[in-house]
Design brief:
With 458 residues, this protein is α/β, with parallel strands linked by helices. The protein folds into 4 domains: 151 residues, Alpha-D-Glucose-1,6-Bisphosphate, Chain A, domain 3 (3-Layer(aba) Sandwich), CATH 3.40.120; 101 residues, Alpha-D-Glucose-1,6-Bisphosphate, subunit A, domain 3 (Alpha-D-Glucose-1,6-Bisphosphate, Chain A, domain 3); 92 residues, Alpha-D-Glucose-1,6-Bisphosphate, subunit A, domain 3 (Alpha-D-Glucose-1,6-Bisphosphate, Chain A, domain 3); 81 residues, Alpha-D-phosphohexomutase, C-terminal domain (TATA-Binding Protein). It is built from 15 helices and 21 strands. A hairpin with a 6-residue loop joins β9 and β10. α6 packs across α7 and α9 crosses α12. The termini are far apart. Its cofactor is Mg(2+). Belongs to the phosphohexose mutase family.
């Protein structure tokens, strides 16, 4: 039996979707070793015999991987280590090897953080309700020892197989030559982009911050924050690139910048990829989360597809991908999910679809994407509040006379006349209310944002 831990210390790092915390203070090798043991016990109970492990470029990752592997091996399961990898490469490994996986990364968080994203075989998610709570309970009570033979460890390099697999999913053979500026943010895009795009003769990559460096010396590896796109925007303009791509730290999300240096909404990317997938499979199901632009379900319906609305969060979308048989799913956070990729998310695969669409069209990105951008949006606006429920109720009361409909699938979504809407959601981990607004014009958006924030921040 391993040492028992306090519920407070365990629950501080086991989140709704993953495990994440400050290295040494919250995540030490002992904790990670026991987490590996608890995960191995859970998977062994489901008939698994091996677990594949990958990690990002953070300095703490190799030591934590070694500790996790030790815990897995002690429980009698084998370990397959793929070394440096993006998160979607780990999902590929889980699918290709048909075994559970553990990816060591803290995504875009600062260097002092690390964490683990866990999945079952074929990249099926492990979240709070599908395994993480069980792991937390074992860490609190103490993980029982295994009295059988320990497992065996092997290493394998799957980078080239991952790259070839993605290229086989998207036909880029007849595209026009493209110059593509890529900001890897010193994250794992610097590892995977050369492998995937380097083999395509029609594409010239202009690299930025490809050096793997978990201290993120140039900017945070979080392209969702506009300030972290500034360098890529300048590079696109200065180099005359046809398009810019920005990846987050573990390279599972991809953001697009057009030839003018202007960011392209992930909702527009979702619509573009949905259109391409529906062209291959008419009538298919497309998933979008509830803060994605209404342009997405409208386009899917217009094309004869079946749009399905989801809560925000990868575990919800992955579950819907599996249960509905959807061919594709998109989130406004730039996570893109593909049935052909075991229902998991891959920013690199989404990027290949965008490059294929651009390369098959004579128009620049700005014109190509214009048809997928029917509305103005606020982006996500966060407010620190003491009582999210009270503030949310006050907003609902203020709009009671104008609301066309109100639903509570995730937070509260208020539909207003003339295609305007807003969603207000409380954070699961912080004292924040998250606001998203969409309307026909930016002026309408600004008016609604001002009115709602006046109530939220009163």
């Amino acid at each position: 039996m391993t040492v028992a831990r306090s519920a407070e210390s365990v629950n501080a790092v086991i989140k709704a979707y993953d495990i994440r915390g400050v290295v040494a203070d919250q995540l030490d090798t002992g904790f990670i070793r026991d987490t590996g043991a608890a995960f191995a016990r859970l998977m062994r109970g489901e008939g698994t015999r091996r677990i594949v492990i990958g990690h990002d470029m953070r300095a703490s990752s190799p030591e934590l991987v070694a500790a996790f592997a030790e815990g897995v091996l002690a429980q009698g399961l084998d370990v397959v280590q793929i070394g440096l990898a993006s998160t979607d490469e780990l999902y590929f490994a889980s699918g290709r090897l048909d075994c559970p996986g553990a990816m060591f990364t803290a995504s875009h968080n600062p260097a002092r953080y690390n964490g683990i994203k866990l999945c079952r075989a074929r990249a099926l998610p492990v979240g709070q309700d599908t395994g993480l709570a069980t792991i937390a309970d074992e860490l609190i009570a103490g993980v029982p020892e295994y009295d059988g033979e320990p497992g065996a460890a092997t290493e394998v390099d799957l980078l080239d197989d991952y790259a070839a697999f993605l290229r086989d999913l998207v036909d880029l053979g007849s595209i026009r030559p493209l110059t593509v500026a890529v900001d890897a943010g010193n994250g794992m895009g610097g590892h995977t982009v050369p492998a995937v795009l380097g083999a395509l003769s029609q594409i010239t990559v202009v690299p930025l911050y490809f050096e793997l460096d978990g201290t993120f010396p140039n900017h945070e590896a979080n392209p969702l924050d506009p300030k972290n796109l500034v360098d890529l925007q300048a590079l696109v303009r200065d180099s005359g690139a046809d398009i810019g791509l920005a990846f987050d730290g573990d390279a599972d999300r991809c953001f697009v910048v057009d030839e003018l240096g202007d960011p392209v909404s992930p909702s527009a990317i979702t619509a573009l990829v949905a259109e391409r997938e529906l062209a291959k499979e008419p009538g298919a199901t497309i998933i979008h989360n509830l803060i994605t632009s209404r342009a997405v379900p409208e386009l899917v319906t217009e094309l004869g597809g079946h749009p399905v609305r989801s809560r925000v969060g990868h575990s919800f979308i992955k579950q819907l991908m599996a249960s509905s048989g959807a061919v594709f799913g998109g989130e406004h956070s730039a996570h893109y999910y593909f049935r052909d990729f075991w229902g998991a998310d891959s920013g690199m695969l989404a990027a290949l679809h965008v490059l294929a669409a651009l390369g098959e069209d004579k128009r620049p990105v700005s014109e190509l994407m214009a048809s997928y951008t029917a509305y103005a949006a606020s982006g996500e606006i966060n407010s620190t509040v003491d009582d999210a429920a009270t503030r949310t109720a006050a907003v609902i009361d203020a709009f009671a006379g104008r609301a066309v409909s109100v639903d509570r699938l995730d937070g509260v979504t208020v539909q207003l006349p003339a295609h305007a809407w807003f969603n207000l959601r409380a954070s699961n981990t912080e004292p924040l209310l998250r606001l998203n607004v969409e309307a026909r014009s930016q002026e309408e958006v600004d008016v609604l944002v001002t009115e709602i924030l006046r109530i939220v921040r009163a």
